[in-house]
Amino acid sequence: MVRKRPSSVRPDGAVTTPPRIPFGISVSMPSTFSQRRPVARMQPASTFSIPICAGLALIIMMLLAPALAGSALPKGFVYLREIDPTIVQDIRYAGSHNFVGRPIRGYLAAECILSEPAANALEDVQRRLAEKKLSLIVWDCYRPKRAVDDFLQWSKDPAHSEMKTEFYPRNDKEHLFALGYLARPSAHSRGSTVDLAIVPTTFSSAPRPNPSQSPKACTSPKSERFEDGTIDFGTGYDCLDVLANTSNTRAGGTATRNRQTLRSYMHGAGFRPYAREWWHFELINEPFHRGGFDFEVSASPSPTERPTR
Predict the structure, then answer these.
(1) Contact, 139 vs 195, CB < 8 A?
(2) How far from 283 is each of 136, 219, 261, CA to CA, in Å?
(3) What angle do CA 94, 96, 102 make, to 5 degrees?
(4) What pLDDT is recorded for position 141?
(5) CA 55 to CA 45: how far, in whole Å?
(6) Residue 261 backbone dihedrals phi, psi, to 5 degrees
(7) What sign does the dihedral 86-91-96-99 (CA atoms) show?
(8) How far is residue 251's CA from residue 242's CA, in Å, rounded to a whole number?
(9) In a 10 Å sphere around its CB, with 0-12 CB exposed, 13-18 middle and 19+ buried, how is residue 195 labelled?
(10) CA end-to-end distance (rounded Å), the chain
(11) Which of 126, 270, 301, 305 gives 70 a disulfide partner, CB atoms 3.0 to 4.6 angstroms apart?
(12) Taking the CA of residue 283 as centre, how many other CA atoms within 13 Å lie in the half-sphere pointing to its CB?
C-alpha cells in the first residue's frame, strides 16, 4: 500500500500538496526546533588516584609522628631532655645491658620521662653539680606497669639467667622480689622515682659492653667491673646485692663518701633515698600517689644531641 503525502486546503478551496524533496537534499529545520545534544558519558576515576592519595597520607603521618609522640604524654608528665638536655641518659631497660639481658616491655625508646615536679627538681640538682664540674646520669625514670610484670614473669622463669654473673652474682633470681630489689607495684610507675648517679661533665655518652670480654660482677672493684662512667659508688648500677645497700660501709671509703654526696644533693631537691639501692630516689611530694601508669616510654620529639655546658 502506497502512503499518500499529507495535503492542506487553501482559503479559496484549492488543495495543495507539499513538493517532493529529492533524495540527497538537506532541509534546514525551523529555529523553533533544536536537536537533542548527546549526553557526555562519565569517565571512570583514574586507577592511580587511590595509591597516590594513600601515599600522600602516609608521608604526612610520618612527618607528624614525632610531634604526635611528644604530645601523647599524660598531663603532668614531661621528657627530661626538654627540661634539662645536659643530663646524661643511659636508659638501660630500653636495651640489653640490664639484669634481664634484653629490652623490657613498654620501653619503645631510651628516654627519661618524669612528672614535671621531679624533672624540675633534677634540673636544680644538675645546676648545682655543674658548679663542681659534675653531672647527673639517669638510668631509669618512669617505668610502665607492664615492665614490672615483665620482671615478675622473668623471675619465675629458671631458663634465663644470662646476666647473673654481672648483676646478681650472689642471689637467685626467684628471690629478688622477696629481697626487695624488685617491687610490684613499683614507685617508678608513678613517675617521680629515678635511678641515677654522678659523672664528670667531660662524660658525654654511655659506653656499651664489649661482647668479646667476659662480664665482671657488679660487686667487683671499679677498675674491674663494667665502666659506666660514674665516680666510684662501690657497685655498678642495678647491682642486686647487699653491697649496694645505701649505708653499707663495706663498699669502701670513697664509695661511701660519694653515696653521701649524692644523697645530700638529692635530699636538698626534695628526694628520699632507698635503703637497698644507693641509686634509687623518690620525690617526697610526688603529684601521683596511687596505682601508677602503664603508657609506653616513647621517643621525645626534641633533638637527641646533648649540648655541652
Answers:
(1) yes
(2) 16, 28, 17
(3) 90
(4) 98
(5) 17
(6) -65, -45
(7) positive
(8) 10
(9) buried
(10) 114
(11) 301
(12) 25
Q: Which residue has the cell 663498699?
A: 251
Give the side-chain half-sphere CA count within 13 A for 45: 7
Task: Determine contact, residues 112/262, Cβ cutoff 8 Å.
Answer: no
How far is the C-alpha of 36 from the C-alpha of 34, rounded, in Å? 6
Domains and CATH numbers, the chain: 76-283 (3.30.1380.10)
Burial status of residue 275 (CB atoms within 10 A of its CB: 0-12, 13-18, 19 or more): exposed
Residue 58: all three cell numbers together: 602516609
Count of other CB atoms within 10 angstroms of residue 201: 15
Beta-carbon contacts of 100 under 8 Å, excluding residues fewer than 6 positions away, are 150, 151, 154, 160, 163
Q: Which is nearest to 239 in space by CA: 151, 182, 183, 168? A: 168
Instruction: Find, among 90, 104, 95, 131, the residue nearest to 228 by Cα.
Output: 90
Segment 129-165, tens digit of pLDDT: 999 999 999 999 999 999 999 999 999 998 899 999 9
**What are the tens digits of pLDDT across the range 237-253?**
999 999 999 999 999 99
Q: Are 193 and 187 in contact (CB under 8 A)?
A: yes
Distance CA 226, CA 217 (A): 8
- Would you say 297 and 142 are in contact if contact means Cβ atoms under 8 Å apart? yes
Among 19-23, 195-199, 210-214, where is mean pLDDT lowest? 19-23
Cell output for 225: 667491673
Burial classification of residue 17, based on how many CB atoms lie within 10 Å of its CB (0-12 exposed, 13-18 middle, 19 or more buried): exposed
CA distance linking residue 70 with residue 213, whole number of Å: 38
